[in-house]
Amino acid sequence: MTLLSQYLADALDRLERHHQTRSLVATRMSGPARLERQGHDLIDFSSNDYLGLARHPLLAERSAEWAIRHGSGSGASRLVTGTSPEHLAIEARIARFKGTEAALLFPTGWQLNAAVLAALLKAAPGTLLFTDRLVHGRVHAGAAGHRQIRFRDGPRLIVTESVFSMDGDRADVERLVRIAQAHDAFLYLDEAHATGVLGPDGAGLSRGITGKVDLVMGTFSKAMGCFGAYVAGSRLLIDYLVNACGGFIFSTAPPPAMLGAIDAALDLVPGMEAERQRLADHAVYLRARLAEHGIDTGASSTQIIPVIVGEAERAVTLSATLAAEGLLASAIRPPTVPQGTSRLRIVLRASHTREDVDQLLHALVRQLR
């Protein structure tokens, strides 16, 4: 074993002592809000497939259709030969969906946030960066080496999520808009967990205040049921990113199958108001019933409901106990969340039945009592 390998082994040992090790487990979607894992059927309360679109036949059919028609790959980066008419058409659809002048596709949300934020900071090195303390790790990656002022002169950049992925609460976007306008600040809003679920036609919390948020990003891998990410904003912003964002410039263009699935999702999501209402109703019901039993769900107001239990070992044990009862609710531990706030991250879906939610509720009450 080399010296570096010994350091790797020691690092894993430390994680294990603190109940923070992770591993990959083969899992397959088997039906509406159902998974098959290690030979067991589970009701899924962990996936971000909020509207149940990941198995919708239209997305699968259009993905296959576009792959057959246009090929399995795009062949190059967007600035070489990788930009097809379909890329431009999908970006125009995204801009209309978000109510912005323009939009740009990226392979993943993590890559987008890390690359776009770095590109914005590169344009104005003296920028004062204000970030919410709960923003996703991908934002911190994009801000690496840049001082972050958490809620002297220079451009001001405010970065936050509209729905926080571990707590399920919402940013006060209207107030942030007023703050940004009062201080001549650029407002960057991550809508990954709001896209498809909240706002007019599921277009996110920014959609109701069109023109006041400078940059909106979101993903297609959650409520939209497929894969990829987008950034939307002014034509100036998008033109700058095409010329200065390394994560865009040096990445191979998204393949046709991905574009086909996005196209189908954009057809479906605006008309899924009944599913959005069912999802919201499930969340209101579950939070109220958990509160009746004194179970801490933090400040959740969305389809993401944390059941906060404190120590990592307790969260892991509770998750395993529920899995034995056919309920998949993942344990979230430090460093993803602060010390002492380990939790089960309950993720509700429109494809859950009220009986599914009740089964989870009764199991949680029984185990936490």
What does the model show?
It contains 13 helices and 14 strands. It is globular. The termini are far apart. The strands form 3 sheets. Strands 4-10-9-8-7-5-6 form a 7-stranded mixed β-sheet, with helices on both faces. Helix content is 42%, strand content 18%. It has helices at residues 3-17, 57-70, 78-82, 85-98, 109-123, 137-142, 173-182, 235-244, 246-249, 256-268, 273-292, 312-324, 354-368; strands at 27-31, 34-37, 40-44, 102-106, 128-131, 148-150, 156-161, 185-190, 215-219, 229-233, 304-310, 327-328, 331-332, 342-347. By secondary structure, it is an alpha/beta fold. Helix 2 (57-70) packs antiparallel against helix 10 (256-268) and helix 11 packs parallel to helix 13.
Q: How are the secondary structure elements laid out?
A:
Elements: H1 3-17, E1 27-31, E2 34-37, E3 40-44, H2 57-70, H3 78-82, H4 85-98, E4 102-106, H5 109-123, E5 128-131, H6 137-142, E6 148-150, E7 156-161, H7 173-182, E8 185-190, E9 215-219, E10 229-233, H8 235-244, H9 246-249, H10 256-268, H11 273-292, E11 304-310, H12 312-324, E12 327-328, E13 331-332, E14 342-347, H13 354-368
Parallel strand pairs: 3-12, 5-6, 5-7, 7-8, 8-9
Antiparallel strand pairs: 1-2, 2-3, 4-10, 9-10, 11-14, 13-14
Helix content: 40-55%
Q: Please state roughly what percent of the residues sit in beta strands, choosing from under 5%, 5-15%, 15-25%, 25-35%, 35-45% or over 45%.
A: 15-25%
- Listing every helix as H and every strand as E from the N terminus to the C terminus, the arrangement reads HEEEHHHEHEHEEHEEEHHHHEHEEEH
Shape: globular
Oligomeric grouping of the chains? single chain
